[in-house]
Amino acid sequence: MFVYLQSFFLVILEAACCKIFFETFGKKRYESGRLKNYILFTGWIASVYLAAMVTEHVFFFIKQGAVILLTGVFMALYLEIGCVKTFILAALFQGVVSAVDYCVLLFCISVFPHMLQLGESYGMESLLLAIIAKILLFMVVLMIQRYLGIDSDTDLTDTEWLRFLVFPVFTIGVIAAMITTSAGAGNREKDSVLSVIAFCLAGMNGVVFSLIKDILKREQELGRAEVFRVQAKNQTRMYRSISDNFEKQKKKTHEFKNQMVCIEALVTQQKYDELHRYIRNICGSLSSETPAVQTNHVIVDAILNSKYQEMKKKNIIFIFQMDDLSGILMQDEDIVVILSNLLNNAIEACGQCQEQKMVKMKLIKEKHAVILSVRNTYAHKILYQDGVFQTTKEHETGEHGIGLKNITDTIIKYGGYYTIENNEKEFYFSAVIPQ
């Protein structure tokens, strides 16, 4: 009976590795239906175990074919993958399993020559080697998921992966020590305890991996919420700017009506000298209120003029080269993300400068692309951590880096490319966005 339990637990370990392997290439069909997934997974394990028991003494390839068939059927129900692809992946996984088992067997023969015939006298050693093979399979599957997984954005960094792999390596070392201590012992109770310990260690690897995946998923959700918050903040600023401009326009319309009444009165009274002075004053005030940036694109004009006024108040020199952007092929919200974040970062950096405060911007539309570049002075040291630029302000920790990531993600969304550089005095960002 205990032998059957051992075999069943080995099947569970292999099934867990198979589940991770398949989830590398597809998403769950029932993402919110945990009960359905558990039923499918349990039914699949039971079917594979029964198939292995029934085909125990038949030709090897018939046994493998039965396992591949069952795996393909259940995985087609479990994941959003086509039937042909599931059977191909099932065959590939069985190939990986066989390769790992063969490598462990070769290593066993080279290290323990007396175990060339893994029979009844070496039952415990055979079981422990089988568990080592499953842990190695687990590590191989993790490497496949690391480099081929569809959810690469939830992956650990290379350093974190190496730290995590210490646990499976430690488990293999402990089980290898068990093999050396149990060789030739023949104590059934001791063998039972060792097998339970080995299975528990192997199971702990899966538990740790599951916990790490849950933590990464939660961090990803928090990151998305933070990105959404920053985007909403920038869009709110832009809409507030448009609203303020609209209110100013309403006031100007009202003033214009009053001015026309005054002009009519002066003309009626033939006070032409006063009329001339009045019109000259009106023209002077109008010229001072003319928008600094006019690109024939409402959103671009609203953002740039708003930032121009902000820089003017903060004594930041704004040098810009603009083009007719009326035909730009980008969604308004994406334009807001790129321009607002870039200029917010530039204004923040210039605000920390004691001497020269300058922002240079180029935004032109060529035949097949939009050319964008922003160059600004900065004073404080630029922090670069894990491929992300960080802000130096304590109350906005991470927001600068998130803003820059939003910019680059949006540019990549349109098939564009970008470059980021800095010297001792200036930070430079440029991008080409195909149209």
Report what the structure shows.
Helix 1 (2-23) packs parallel to helix 7 (188-268), helix 2 (34-54) packs antiparallel against helix 3 and helix 6 packs antiparallel against helix 7 (188-268). It is elongated and about 120 Å long. The model is unreliable at 118-122 and 393-400 (pLDDT under 50). A hairpin with a 2-residue loop joins strand 4 and strand 5 (388-390). The protein has eleven helices and seven strands. The N and C termini lie far apart (69 Å). The protein is α+β, with helices and mostly antiparallel strands and 435 residues long. The strands form two sheets. The protein has a five-stranded mixed sheet, covered by helices on one side. The chain folds into two domains: 2-230, no CATH class; 293-434, Heat Shock Protein 90 (2-Layer Sandwich), CATH 3.30.565.10.
Short account of what is shown:
This protein has 11 helices and 7 strands. The chain has 435 residues and is an alpha+beta fold.
